[in-house]
Amino acid sequence: MRRQLPYTDAVRRAWLALVLCGAGCDTSDSPAETDAGSTGLASTSSTTIIDGTSSSSTTESAPVFAPQFDTCRKECEFAADCCRAGQEPCPSFEYPGNYGCVDGMCVPPVCDGDETCEAWTAGSTCELVEGLPQCVIVCTDDEPCAALGTEYACGAPTDEGDTYCRDRCDIGIPCLLDTCNADGVCECTSTDQCISGFRCDAE
Q1: Cα separation of 108 and 99, whole Å?
Q2: What share of the chain is helix, strand, coil (3-state, %, to 5)?
Q3: Neighbouring-strand partners of residue 129
């Protein structure tokens, strides 16, 4: 039986708000903090007053993207701005067209289970990576990464500590103005290192 990540209907609805509206949505119900658990999902609390007494409850909201390194990310006003050229349908309710737009920057699309990932990339599974459920190929060496391209290698950790195939700037496409760090990621310290239409996480 294929594994499903903890991606409830409530989480899906919150994520769709980002997909459809991006920065233009009313985010009064969106989380300001990330839950301390390992799911990478934000939680929000509410209090109900009944007959002078109160009770509180916690509900899950959209996943929170937490990049390991400061990188140049595409700027956006709506999730549609994040779609790749010619990508159809996008934006979409489903992977891989369900990008998010948070704080004016694009967030990767999220998966809802291994079957979704397998349908797009053979051998991939839905894993939590930098706070988001993403389709990756879990690996222990570079062999399974070869199918993705010569710029991919094994070594980056998922949020649960498994290694997966990731494109690396030290063996593949080099960085532009930003710096290729020791982990093979193009890292920036300011938006001056990003091309037009992109912004550095550091700012």
Answers
A1: 5
A2: 20, 30, 50
A3: 132
Exposed/middle/buried for residue 101 (C-beta within 10 Å: 0-12, 13-18, 19+): buried
- How far apart, in whole angstroms, are the C-alpha atoms of residue 58 and residue 43? 6
Do β-strands 152-157 and 163-167 pair in parallel, antiparallel, or remain unpaired? antiparallel
Short-list 76, 70, 117, CA closest to 96:
117
> What is the separation, in whole angstroms, between the first and last Cα of the chain?
43
* Cα 122 to Cα 67: distance, rounded to the nearest angstrom: 25
Q: Mark 6-42 as b/e (b = at least 16 C-beta within 10 Å).
A: ebeeebbebbbbbbbebbebebeebbeebbeeebbbb
Extract the tokens encoding 105: 């920057």
Separation in Å, CA 29 to CA 32, 73, 78, 98, 194: 9, 25, 18, 20, 32
pLDDT, one tens digit per residue, over 85-136 is 999 999 999 999 999 999 999 999 999 999 999 999 999 999 999 999 999 9
State the Cα–Cα distance between residues 18 and 1, nearest whole angstrom.
Answer: 30
- pTM of the full structure: 0.74
The predicted-structure confidence for 32-68, as pLDDT tens digits, reads as follows 333 333 334 444 444 434 444 444 444 566 678 999 9
Cα dihedral across residues 146, 163, 74, 40: positive or negative: positive
Under 8 Å between Cβ of 198 and 180: no
